[in-house]
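User: Here's a chain of 457 residues. Predict its fold as tokens.
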Amino acid sequence: METMMESTRTFAIVTMGSGDYLGSTVRDLALANALWRRGHKVVIYWMMEVNAELADPGIAHRMLCHGTRYHFATPSGFLDQCVGRLLFLLPRRLRVRTIQARSGYVDRLLRNLIHALYGRPEGDRGLARRLQRLLARDGASHVLMSFAALGPLALEAQRMSTHEFDYLLTFQGDEQFAAHAKQLGLLDEFHRLLNEAIRASAWPSVVVSADYADRIVAEMDVPRDSLAVVYNGIVQSERKVKHSFASLKSAFPGLSPHYPIVAYVGRQDAEKGIDLLLYAARLLARRNTAMQLVICGSTAKGGTYRKVLDDLATHLDLKVFHAGSISIETRDALYAHSHCVVCPSVNREPFGLVVAEAMSHGAPVLVPDYGGIGEVIRDGEKMGGLLFKAWDSGDLATQLERLLLDRPLHRRLAGNTRAIAKRFTVDNMVDAVLNLLETATRRTGASAATPDAVTDA
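Assistant: Prediction complete.
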């Protein structure tokens, strides 16, 4: 049972929104909803974009900054507060489609954000000042930063504020921000300021898998004892819910219930390695292995890679059921009717929300033997899918063929999926976060530095 102090917590979640349901946004909003349902006050501070419909009614929303703030290397309050507000009068889908039509523009915004935080002696003081004013107005006691790379912003807001609060950093894709820092020649400063923000927090920083913790230690010079593993949580599928195949017809005309469906669901960006899946599908087509390939999902960086995939499928003479964003209902129906779901990523994935979601619907998965994603499909000796050699389209084809042709293997893996997915409930994630906050507070005091040793939460 929570103490009175715990029950009066006010959580401010600073998240970098997107026009579609990206993994970090989904994770942050699931956390926000669960905290709200447990009686905490929750406020969401959005950066770049907004996805307020993912949040429970009653949760407050604030716009911390619009993407236009980082149109130039120097942050612009005018472009943020004036031009950004005007652009937000347009429908969200139109805004997102327009921005993503400009190849490389989203990367430019993120690169300018990193330059503002790590390449200027004063950082982005204007945004830090706005953050501290919002936190004071909302009475926030606990600030949860969606990305650890935003740590200097939280630290600067804390330094200039008379309102007391502490912040928790989460690593969930921060290697992308580190890559921007490297391109800008700011990697050393990125490491220095990131570690400064980590040390100033009252709590260890969250990492979303054990492998990702190892990666952060190796690549960002972060001490291992300043990190705590908290796996992401997903909304679990209910077995009793039946998803009609007919619901897939409008999104994927011509899709048949009579042939096995192999699905990719997720961001359509270059690091996701979807081209490897196309090469593997071509190899299987030459072996006359029957399958229907479905590729769908949003993009964070524009439609260039999706156009590459269309061209590649044409050159490989592949029929692909290819779509962009789909509704949650269509996505769940696709999971439920897929023979397997493939994650062909060439990135060292920190976690794998799609993989956990697919298994919760009973679909076996195929993932690379690289990164934290392998932790998601394994529970002791039980597996909810197969591994393939990372970056190897030939081995991807071999393992996919096993899933398509070896029926006893497929049944065994499918039988494990739901039980393995239940390790990744939203409640488990929230319990781990709250336990981390409480344990570190008892050990160090609310404003002390990171403890010397932390057990994975």
